[in-house]
Design goal:
29 helices; D-amino Acid Aminotransferase, Chain A, domain 1; Dna Ligase, domain 1
Length: 854
């Protein structure tokens, strides 16, 4: 092939590296050099892109446009992208580059050979970040003019609004990125699809998953078709599951590109792949996985019985190496749930070994008193790969637990009420006592004793909530909904959940308090304007200074401190490793800034409107129905409304001891770090309880401290690996309960099914949040994508356009708040946080319970 080496490389050149040809190009070169069936083509290197930019003096203009954009203001991203796109469009491609491309294109075959022109950035398709969908691809480009124009448009797509925002969120400097272009002979695909060499929906390395549809692959990638889904056992090559999708549309070639057209009726419900083709795909997938040494996401095309590989990238959301899910008991029945919305994630070693034993003691006391389960020396909660499981070692325990709402419901509710009343009088006193103690005067063992005392209060709140308000709320809402839907509701009547909106609760009071603070701040221009410009983390750092500098001094600092004093205990997560809002209220400050900008959602106006609509609906229905239905309608509704508020308040109060508990652990962590036992004070959460006890005793005796730095780093790595896993909902996975609890099957790789929690449809960028450490990524208009949300997440809803979670249900916090805000929500997708990337455009349909990945 005659080409200028600086600008053009053969697609099969094994020396092509990331800096020359970008992530996609480097991967294709590796595949082609290994003899895999990659369509022929060539690569336009990053040198060509840089030459174009330098020759026309674009770099300073590009950086100036990008510097004026901020990720939390989508309009600025679009404006910057538009300006840069014009720069590329109005400047001609250098003649020597154009000539090199013409020669390389001519070398592909006759005249106007159709090709695919694909962007390949230097920061994409990496093992840790895929950057999927950030740049453009142009299919069926014919002739020199179309190819040259597509190359320029690919170059410009390095600066799409979504790409600028994505890189900013991942702290990738704009001056560090460049773009190559891959030009390949277009496979006139009869069918195409995606092959995952590990099951992305379950995380199983023992399975491959294939999606297949008619025509070019864009119909699948774009989410326009429900493809066939085939699950293959990797070891045997046998198909273990095959689901034939209804393939209504397919992407086909046209003289100037591609279009979608209907699939002929004879093929819509016909399997795309024959058994031999499925087996061949699986063999190719195994070769590619062996080549890369890790699970891969592979795009393929089929024409005239021949399979071609058009792209391969690492799957970024699987633990490596895979985790083993085994129980410490010989005949376990274990259930991992959302633990009342508060413990869905892998927990820290200190919480697992100090907090969970206390929770076990509290729950066993309740089980003994209410259920009569005595003499069992096994815990209620066990930890597997960092995740909390409810343990039914004996079948008797399981059935007694399942039947308790029928046989012991009265005693259970009475116990929960009794404990709640006791806690109301005792917990505040304990927390207040520790707040007044100068911790410098407390010896190390007593600090740990204080941690245990404070956490026992939290575990008691947790148990009391499980005993009374949570089951009461679940059942009362269920009874009301069933009665209303079966005997009262007409077509135009509100849905049952509309009668539970706008109710007063602690999370709503916290929202109002923050809104009030924003309105007060807005009336102080000398404060409001600097606060609006200051990043939330910087503002919080200044508020913690002594003295607090202007403009945050005096009254604002006092008002914000009062807000935290009253509402800062509402938890993000049950694991006390994670800061309470009182420790890190940055999301609150971000939401306050949204209110200052005149955005967000006025909680007073929202509650008043919902209350007005609710009362009008209640009145209209009460006037329409007969006396006995009216009596039961009002009785069941009042019970459901009362229990809904009680549930939110109970969950919110679980964290009451956490600010003081974390204060004690911080003090002990400082002493351990000073003594060389750990590197950083927060590393205390990566110790196990007996290690912390031994170190505290050594501090008291003034003995030298043993360093735990190595084990701390190992445990952090294990925890990060565990967070990438999808824990089984029930173990053993072949048990009857596991089959009952199995999540909905996800019909295709770019469509997630879940629970339709709040109606409506939104298409917007996703923001994947695993915890408070990610909250700074949230921007107005983003879709919250989380394992689950808790009451402390409520400030983020003021910025959100929709909510998607891995777990949850109709009465989980995300469902309730999404309905309050009137935004779409889909719960219990099972894999949203692992299949969706921050910045990815997704469509959330809260009416059907689906999420489409763009």
């Amino acid at each position: 092939m005659m080409a200028t080496p600086d600008f053009i490389l053969p697609l099969s050149d094994a020396s092509a590296g990331l800096s020359q040809v970008g992530g996609k190009g480097a991967s294709l070169a590796r595949l082609a050099a290994a003899g895999l069936p990659v369509p022929p083509g060539f690569q336009i290197t990053t040198a060509a892109y840089r030459r174009f930019v330098v020759e026309h003096g674009l770099q300073e203009q590009i950086l100036a446009a990008v510097s004026a954009a901020t990720p939390d203001q989508p309009a600025t991203l679009e404006e910057a992208s538009g300006r840069i796109e014009q720069l590329f469009a109005q400047n001609a491609m250098p003649g020597d580059i154009a000539e090199a491309i013409r020669r390389a294109y001519a070398g592909l075959g006759a005249g106007d050979a159709p090709v695919a022109v694909r962007s390949s950035a230097t920061a994409e398709d990496l093992p840790e970040m895929s950057f999927a969908g950030q740049q453009e691809t142009y299919l069926n480009m014919r002739g020199e003019a179309m190819v040259l124009d597509a190359v320029k448009r690919c170059w410009a797509s390095l600066w799409t609004a979504r790409a600028i925002g994505y890189r900013a969120r991942h702290n990738i400097a704009p001056q560090d990125v460049s773009l190559a272009v891959v030009v390949q002979v277009l496979v006139p695909a009869d069918a195409a699809g995606i092959l995952f060499t590990a099951n992305p929906l379950t995380g199983a390395r023992s399975q491959m998953l294939i999606n297949a549809a008619w025509g070019l692959g864009e119909a699948i990638v774009g989410g326009h078709v429900t493809p066939d889904t085939v699950v293959v056992d990797k070891a045997s090559g046998k198909v273990v599951e095959r689901n034939i999708g209804k393939k209504d549309v397919m992407t086909v070639r046209t003289p100037d590109g591609t279009r979608e057209e209907p699939v002929p009726s004879s093929r819509r419900n016909k399997a795309v792949l024959r058994p031999a083709q499925t087996a061949e795909l699986a063999r190719l997938g195994a070769r590619i996985e062996d080549l890369y040494g890790r699970p891969m996401d592979i795009e393929w095309a089929l024409h005239a019985g021949h399979i071609s590989i058009v792209q391969a990238r690492p799957i970024t959301a699987l633990p490596d190496p895979p985790l083993e899910w085994t129980s410490p008991y010989p005949k376990p029945l274990l259930a991992h749930g959302d633990s009342i919305d508060l413990a869905p994630d892998a927990v820290s070693p200190l919480f697992a070994t100090l907090g969970l034993p206390i929770a076990n003691q509290v729950y066993l006391k309740m089980y003994d008193k209410v259920l009569g389960l005595r003499g069992e020396d096994v815990p209620i909660f066990v930890i597997i790969n960092g995740y909390i499981y409810l343990c039914f070692v004996k079948r008797s325990r399981f059935w007694k637990y399942m039947l308790m709402h029928m046989s012991t419901v009265g005693r259970l509710y009475a116990y929960g009420k009794e404990r709640a009343e006791e806690l109301r009088t005792s917990s505040h006193a304990v927390v207040a006592r520790w707040r007044q103690i100068d911790l410098a005067s407390v010896n190390a063992p007593d600090l740990l004793a204080g941690v245990r005392e404070l956490y026992e209060i939290s575990a008691d709140y947790w148990c009391a909530a499980i005993c009374r308000p949570i089951p009461r709320s679940n059942f009362s809402e269920l009874f009301f909904r069933q009665f209303y839907n079966a005997l009262i509701k007409r077509k135009r009547d509100p849905v049952a959940t509309a009668f539970l909106l706008g109710l007063e609760s602690l999370p709503l009071r916290a929202e109002k308090s923050l809104f009030d603070l924003a309105q007060w701040t807005k009336a102080q221009p000398e404060l409001a304007q600097p606060l609006a410009r200051t990043p939330a983390d910087e503002a919080w750092a200044e508020l913690q200074s002594d003295p607090v500098p202007a403009p945050f001094a005096a009254e604002f600092a006092a008002r914000f401190a009062a807000h935290l004093e009253e509402f800062g205990h509402v938890l993000y997560d049950l694991d006390f490793m994670n800061p309470a809002p009182a420790d890190e209220p940055i999301p609150m400050l971000d939401t306050l800034k949204v209110y200052l900008a005149g955005q967000g959602n006025d909680p007073y106006a929202r509650q008043q409107a919902q209350e007005r609509e609710r009362r009008q609906a209640e009145q209209a229905i009460s006037q329409r129905i007969g006396s006995w239905r009216k009596r039961w309608f009002q009785k069941l509704l009042r019970s459901a409304q009362e229990c809904a508020s009680e549930r939110e308040n109970a969950i919110a109060n679980i964290g009451l001891p956490y600010p003081q508990l974390r204060r004690l652990l911080r003090e002990l962590g400082l002493r351990l770090a000073a003594g060389g036992a750990i590197v950083h004070p927060d590393d205390i959460y990566w110790l196990e309880a007996q290690e912390a006890d031994a170190l505290a005793a050594a501090l008291e005796k003034k003995d030298p401290l043993t360093s735990h730095a190595s084990s701390v780093e190992t445990r952090k790595a294990d925890w990060k690996r565990a967070r990438m896993a999808v824990p089984p909902t029930v173990m053993p996975e072949n048990s009857f309960l596991a089959k009952m609890a199995a999540p909905k099957r996800q019909p295709r790789a770019n469509l997630l099914n879940g629970f339709a929690a709040s109606a409506g449809t939104v298409t917007a960028p996703a923001c994947v949040l695993r915890g408070p450490e990610d909250f700074g990524q949230m921007r107005p208009g983003d879709v919250i994508v989380a394992v689950i949300t808790t009451p402390a997440w409520t400030p983020l809803f003021a910025m959100a356009s929709a909510v998607v979670t891995d777990i949850g249900g109709p009465l989980s916090h995300g469902s309730i708040v999404a309905r309050e805000y009137g935004i779409p929500a889909v719960m219990a997708t099972g894999v949203a946080t692992r299949r969706i990337h921050t910045g990815q455009i997704i469509t959330v349909d809260g009416t059907s319970g689906t999420v489409t990945l763009g």
